[in-house]
Amino acid sequence: MSKSEMTAEKIVEIGSRLYKRGLIAGTDGNISALIEPGQVMITPAGRSKDRLEPEEMIVIDDSGQKIAGKLRASSEMAMHLYLYSNRPDIFACVHAHPPFATAFAAAGISLNEKILPEIILSVGNIALTEYAPPGTPALPRSLDPFITDHNAFLLKNHGLVTIGSDLEEAYHRLETIEHFARISYLAKRLGGADVLDTDEVLRLEAIRKSTIED
Ligand SMILES: [Zn+2]
Known about the structure:
41% helix
């Protein structure tokens, strides 16, 4: 099986996981992976991620021109291309509307409270962007202030985008953040979580950075 075929199968699998775990509804969400320098495989527009077929994947170049595929590429392809062009260290991107994380995005409440070591180790800081209409050039621009040093972007009044060195990492970050958003919500109902002290946060951040550099 070629790298392109394997990537198409993996995107289908991630789409199914997003849907089954309730992280998207209807035709929400989009998934992409860099298959060659300047070639991005991305999900088609307007299709349920639970029913994708590997043959439906679209390949676009770094200007958004279609190289392969019959369907129309995701309406958020500009956001995906923007992430790859600004982050040479990443190879995959997942966007969904997970309910707890999106509720924080809708309320304009960041998910940056340092409560759980796992989030600091596996994700790092989670950006909260300014609102930008979906599918417009304003959306990639809204990531700009955070692009160099964040792996997760909470899109105001919209949803969540995560990036990673492969599809598994980008997906796991999204799932982990949704779990964290749920815990944060519950902790707020209990009167608020105790935050980790600064020394511990710095120690955990140093561990994450050392694993990236290894
Ligand atoms: Zn969206």
